[in-house]
Design a protein that fits this description.
By secondary structure, this protein is α/β, with parallel strands linked by helices. It has helices spanning 17-26, 32-43, 57-66, 126-129, 138-156, 186-197, 217-226, 240-246, 255-269, 288-298, 323-335, 361-366; strands spanning 10-11, 67-68, 74-79, 85-90, 96-104, 107-111, 115-117, 132-135, 173-176, 209-213, 230-234, 274-280, 303-309, 339-342, 345-346, 374-375. The structure holds S-adenosyl-L-homocysteine.
């Protein structure tokens, strides 16, 4: 709006319903036009304002002059033989961010990024190695979902460029498990989530949108006041000493405080359970005694555990726990009454695994990453 530089158009994908209502009123139109616009944008996947034919001609002309549907630019796309796809999207001349689509029989999950790089420095994550570059805007976060729907539908029927019927939208689930710490970009992530959930937006059920956090405790309380989505928390260790090493934010917000915040979120938002992610690192956090300790922390609480086989990347000092060790760890949890799943690994022909997303445009064209494993986020 008035805060935009003169030459920059308003990105319609960056506006929640209430912001869009305010914007159309500012343009001299009526608030209900916002819902019409959202119908075109999200229900029909139309990105060309001039094609939004039930908007008055004058209003369309004004909108075309002032606003646009601005999408992240696709730098590269990689297709796995099992249908998984990864897109590299431009953040600026030297930096990129990534999104990954994981098709399954009963759903299509899009894993999106919230930041370019990450400041949290978890010791087992490739994204951490590049440091933090910047927050993604609301339009860039929402734009990933919009773009994936369009790209995937275009693959099915190349003639369609614009309108999508809702049944044709391939993305049924969204996980904020790509690059970045979503709660460190709270200001943009929360409005983006509103657009994902809005009946007039992507209209996704709150159980099909999962925010994963490394454990920013004050922001979890803040989130509980703002929005109801599925919460996943990167726990990765059953005690503070080890977690301090793996997830350094733990030094500021130790496990006890983190778990309290999680239970508060579930109470406040009437949620079912928190999913605790636990990366399986050979000889580091994968012993039966550690499984028992983990069970002790979570038993009796609304918790599920998702064990993630570690995905290696060049220069890492960690190795993936052997499959039998992961099974044993899971069995310890199950025998103590916990719900625990192992994140499925599939596809071996593109670099798209949890913790492997790295956005250096130049680097990526010059070197190949060692591992080629894809992990599938299994969320209801
Ligand atoms: N910053 C958020 C979002 C990232 S989500 C968070 O920490 O939750 C990605 C998930 O993959 C997190 O649970 C993260 O800890 C995990 N992960 C990171 N690096 C990994 C690796 N190399 N192998 C397997 N999982 C990894």
């Amino acid at each position: 709006m008035s805060s935009l530089p003169n030459n920059e158009r308003m990105n319609l994908l960056g506006l929640t319903r209430s912001a869009l209502e305010a914007y159309v009123v500012e343009l001299g139109s009526r608030p209900f036009r916002a819902r019409q616009l959202m119908h075109w944008l999200y229900k029909r996947g139309e990105g060309r304002i001039e094609q939004m034919t039930d908007l008055a001609k004058d209003f369309r002309a004004l909108l075309t002059e002032r606003a646009e549907v601005r999408l992240p630019e696709i730098i590269a796309v990689q297709h796995s033989s099992d249908g998984t796809r990864k897109w590299k999207l431009r953040a600026d001349a030297a930096q990129a961010f990534e999104m990954v689509f994981i098709p399954e029989d009963d759903r299509g999950t899009l894993c999106i990024s919230s930041q370019v790089g990450c400041a949290l420095d978890c010791s087992f994550c490739a994204t951490a190695q590049q440091g933090f570059n910047r927050n993604l805007t609301i339009g860039e976060i929402v734009g990933q979902v919009w773009l994936a729907n369009r790209e995937l539908a275009a693959g099915e029927a190349p003639v369609r460029l614009g309108a999508l019927a809702s049944a044709e939208r391939p993305v049924s689930n969204v996980v904020l498990m790509g690059m970045g710490e979503p709660l460190a970009n709270f200001r943009n992530v929360v409005p983006a989530l509103r657009i994902l959930l809005d009946d007039f937006g992507f209209d996704l059920s709150r159980r099909r949108v999962t925010l994963s956090t490394s454990g920013l405790v004050p922001q979890i309380y803040h989130l509980a006041e703002e929005i109801n989505v599925a919460l996943a928390v990167s726990l990765h260790a059953p005690d503070d000493e080890l977690r301090n090493e793996l997830v350094p934010i733990n030094r500021k917000h130790p496990i006890r405080e983190l778990l309290e915040a999680c239970w508060h979120y579930i109470d406040e938002q009437n949620g079912r359970s928190v999913t605790f992610e636990y990366v399986m690192l050979d000889g580091v956090n994968d012993s039966p005694a550690q499984a028992r300790r983990l069970a002790g922390l979570l038993a009796g609480h609304p918790a599920k555990i998702n064990l993630i086989p570690f995905n290696p990347f060049p220069g890492t000092r960690y190795r993936r726990s052997p499959a039998a060790v992961i099974q044993r760890f899971r069995d310890e949890l199950l025998s103590r009454g916990l719900v625990a799943t192992v994140r499925r690994t599939r596809g071996e022909d593109i670099d798209a695994a949890c913790g492997q997303l790295a956005g250096k445009v130049l680097d990526r064209t010059l070197r190949r990453l060692g591992s080629k494993i894809i992990s599938v986020a299994v969320q209801p």
